[in-house]
Amino acid sequence: MKLRPSPPLWALLGIRLEGFVPAAVLPLTLTMVLFLGPLTQLAVESPRGLFHDVKAGLTDCQSWSKRVKDLKWLRNHVVAPLTEEFVFRACIIPMLVPCTGPTSAIFISPLFFGVAHFHHIIEQLRFGQDTVFDILICAAFQFTYTSVFGVYTAFIFIRTGHLVGPVLCHSFCNRMGFPAIGSVLEHPQKSLILLFYQLGVLLFFILLFPFTDPTFYGMSPVCSLLLTPRSACT
Question: Active-site residues: which are they?
Fold first, then answer.
């Protein structure tokens, strides 16, 4: 902070107004594209249609009232995305970037995020839900996918300079859960759903850099901590 000019603390934490709307819309849209396969499966299995269910879920006041009173729903869709993204992205990344550079920070910060989920091991051992081997395999799998997800949201945070994108993506992913590939292989419309799985992944990688182009969001405050812009910041 003493060596070079720096933006305000709130901006470094990704809480700012400049570019807020695209920061809220584009990363979430990109994540929904990645989940094109699971969303297609939901649409196929919905008797009234996916869009009808989404519309009903957004406009039904009684349904929202039940959700707000449901502590598990609040934890998964509001509290966890806000607190975890604030700690593991907004607080950790600005400290890592000046030391490691943005690209390394994208891959280092999720390791803390992945390890932070190891408390589930204690929970499962305490209640004796599975064998120790099964619990360790489950923990390794959870560490892997939470770290991969952390790389993605760290990338979004650095490229956009906003916290809102990672929070919304986190909430959406918690809502969707890990794609149930096994159920797709036994589905009557397997070919159609698998096609959209592949299409979603392909479009995701095509749109990843264009949708996170820093020019949409203004200069990323985190990148201003560097003496010279590097890779992920440009």
Answer: 84, 117
